[in-house]
Here is the input.
Amino acid sequence: MDSSVIEILKRQQILETFKSSGYEKETEINSTQYGQNILRVCRTSSFKRNKYRKRLTAACAFAIAAALFSAANVGYIWIRNGIATSNASPAYLEPDPDVDNSSDDFYSTSVPRAEAAMEAGDYTNAKKILDSKKERNENTFAGALTYSELYNKTGDYDNAALVILNFLDKHYPPVNIHSQSPLYTDLQDIKGELSPDVQERYDACMAECKASAAFYDHLDSLVKQEDYQTALDLCNSRKQEGAFDSTLFTYYDYCYMGLEKYEEFADYLMEIIKNYPSDVYSMIKVPSDDAVTSGINKVYPYLSAEKKREIDNLHVLTNTADTSE
Here is the structure.
């Protein structure tokens, strides 16, 4: 999988969900509706939008073909062996036997299982699965989206809006919202009538999200025009307003490298490394360690000997073939 796609997925706290469920290839992630929904993040979270859109479209087509082929083979085996499936319990009702269900690791399977239940139209069990780790699921990116989808499908529009509004208030300020962020688009997809109090919060949040989306569209345009200094100044001001490094990282990468401000880029990367969070709720604020390491490797050959020694002391390099000044 492309390293930029991995960075986007990990940044949104759900790559570990797929890995724990055995999904590691992009085509495998696309083989589930949940995976397709989450990978919407990739389409506009990078400057290489068209490239990712083509890759994801191709991956989806491959996944559909593979799914049809697998279904045909499974059906043949069932018929051949005379296995009756009508009374079989759906797989999503059974927790993963390899996961300690008493620990927070159960989150790793609860969200995909809830999505599977919704795909089967079993909304009652979908909610039971999510509620098994309610606090955890309501306070993570994938969990909030899944709860909102469930509430929206069952006509509970107030809660469909509130679970995302609360997540934004607690963990993901609207200054991080892009035009195709699932948090933003899923709020837009709530078509039912809201109570007056929720409607007021909804309208205020949507106004902030719309302004933020316009900001990042403008930032995209500046980078494409190679107006890196203006883009860098906007990134710095946006960070002061509360935008996360995970949101701004790709822009900083383009700007610092485009302006040949290698020492400043190195300082920025080292600051992230030194302050990398350990709790799951803060991970959404920073780029993945793979993305940061990639940035270090990219800028390293252009650094002074002194700056290289600072980086060497962090022991994060994966490729030091060029260590000259």
